[in-house]
Automatic annotation (TrEMBL):
Species assigned in the record: Ancylomarina longa
Cofactors demanded by this protein: pyridoxal 5'-phosphate
Superkingdom of this protein's organism: Bacteria
PANTHER family (UniProt xref): TRYPTOPHAN SYNTHASE, TRYPTOPHAN SYNTHASE-RELATED
Assembly information from the UniProt record: Tetramer of two alpha and two beta chains.
Keywords: Amino-acid biosynthesis, Aromatic amino acid biosynthesis, Lyase, Pyridoxal phosphate, Tryptophan biosynthesis
InterPro entries for this protein: Trp_synth_b_CS, Trp_synth_beta, Trp_synth_beta/beta-like, TrpB-like_PALP, TrpB-like_PALP_sf
One GO cellular component term noted in the UniProt record for this chain: cytoplasm
Substrates-to-products reaction catalysed: (1S,2R)-1-C-(indol-3-yl)glycerol 3-phosphate + L-serine = D-glyceraldehyde 3-phosphate + L-tryptophan + H2O
Gene this protein is translated from: trpB
Matches recorded under Pfam families: PALP
Function: The beta subunit is responsible for the synthesis of L-tryptophan from indole and L-serine.
Protein name: Tryptophan synthase beta chain
Length: 403
């Protein structure tokens, strides 16, 4: 990697190598250009930087710690460390880019934040950011997801957001994206669309990466301070790819650090039973950008599945698509079952209940530790598992129980 990596990728059209870009209607291109221009002029100002720094420290509780897993390391071998994004306010890394996007919206004079949500995690983080800045917030959500994710719907409403039910098609994430885009196009002057990962048309994959880089910058310093060296392995789960790119971005020039992205292998690697996009996808276009995509012969996205609702997306960030082709990051997959085992293992060995998304990264780290007992591993623990506890115990039972 060149030291100019962040200036080189994406290029001015939003390409990371062959991936990214903006495959969107003309009326949206103008808006995306406005956001891009605003991002470059505003986010580099002293005022913006110091306000964001203050928010991270006093509101979000950053820096989040790096933690050494003593019991887990003794049991599996290796030296396993966690970057504790579960301790970030609202319990996951998503608030890092939501606060950045909302702060940009405030500087741009926007009045309202619009987004879609699937399981509700992005909706809750964005509703939190909107409340903080006194902005209106409108979250589009499929009716199927509204029924499934009741606590997050209530959280958004308590925070003052308007939850808009989407009742067409399959009534899930894809329709919610379409609906949110429609609402945004009706008033692009006063509103801004806030994407929930390093996906979507340019400039979102770049902007969200920049707001998530704080995770890697902190973790690299903290790890070096604790150990005097760099980790041999860096591990993060990949849905759209924001928590992974946040951590990886600080280590791209460190050739001694191996980077591992972990995708969901779901119930199996048969079509429709997983979301292992980088392992099994082919280049294609979804939601306004080019990436590896799980798709049928017509280029339509395949149905996907993961036990972790934050990971079940048929596309993936364009930067990950490029990093795969450059062999800079290795991508692996972990099954639902391995994820659940890791969920309980971390809970019982260390007293930390991980989000099911993050448990994919933990599961892969445990495999790595066993295979390489002399090496160190830094895992991004992207979120806490409180949201998942009822589901896990209902579906899988407690370890050792008959269920
Ligand atoms: C949403 C979510 C993810 C997946 O999103 P990325 O953009 O791939 O990081 C991972 N972990 C948690 C806890 C999440 O809420």
């Amino acid at each position: 990697m060149t030291t100019n990596y962040f200036k080189t990728y994406p290029d001015e059209k939003g390409y990371f190598g062959n991936f990214g870009g903006s495959f969107i209607p003309d009326e949206l291109i103008k808006e995306m250009n406005n956001i891009n221009d605003a991002y470059y002029s505003i986010s580099k100002s002293h005022e913006f930087i110091s306000e964001l720094r203050s928010i991270r420290k006093h509101f979000q509780g950053r820096p989040t710690p790096v933690y050494y897993c003593n019991r887990l390391s003794n049991k599996y071998g290796g030296r396993i460390y966690l970057k504790r994004e579960d301790l970030n306010h609202t319990g996951a890394h998503k608030l890092n880019h939501c606060m950045g996007e909302a702060l940009l919206a405030k500087y741009m004079g926007k009045k309202k934040l619009i987004a879609e949500t699937g399981a509700g995690q992005h909706g809750v983080a964005l509703a939190t950011a909107a409340a903080y800045f006194g902005l209106e917030c409108e979250i589009h959500m499929g009716e199927v997801d509204i029924a499934k994710e009741h606590p997050n719907v209530i959280r958004m409403q308590i925070l003052g957001a308007k939850v808009v039910p989407v009742s067409h098609g399959l009534k899930t994430l894809k329709e919610a994206v379409d609906s949110a885009f429609q609402a945004y196009l009706q008033d692009p002057i006063n509103t801004i669309y806030c994407i929930g990962s390093v996906v979507g048309p340019h400039p979102f994959p770049m902007m969200v990466r920049e707001f998530q880089r704080v995770v890697g910058i902190e973790a690299r310093d903290q790890y070096q301070e604790m150990t005097g060296e760099l980790p041999d392995n860096i591990v993060a789960c990949v849905g759209g790819g924001s928590n992974a790119i946040g951590l990886f971005s600080a280590f791209l020039d460190d050739n001694e650090c191996k980077l591992h992205g972990v995708e969901p292998a779901g119930r199996s690697l048969n079509k429709g039973e997983h979301a292992a996009t980088l392992s099994l996808g082919k280049p294609g276009v979804i939601h306004g950008f080019k990436c590896y995509l799980l798709q049928n012969e017509q280029g339509e996205p395949d149905p996907v599945h993961s036990v972790a609702s934050g990971l079940d997306y048929p596309g993936v960030g364009p930067e990950h698509s490029m990093l795969k082709d450059l062999n800079k990051v290795e991508y692996h997959s972990i099954t639902d079952k391995e994820c659940i085992d890791a969920f309980y293992e971390l809970s019982r060995s260390e007293g930390i209940i991980p989000a099911l998304e993050s448990a994919h990264a933990v599961a892969y780290a445990l495999k790595l530790a066993k295979a390489n007992p002399k090496q160190s591993i830094l895992v991004n623990l992207s979120g806490r598992g409180d949201k998942d506890i009822d589901f896990v115990v209902d579906e899988y039972g407690l370890p050792g129980s008959s269920k």
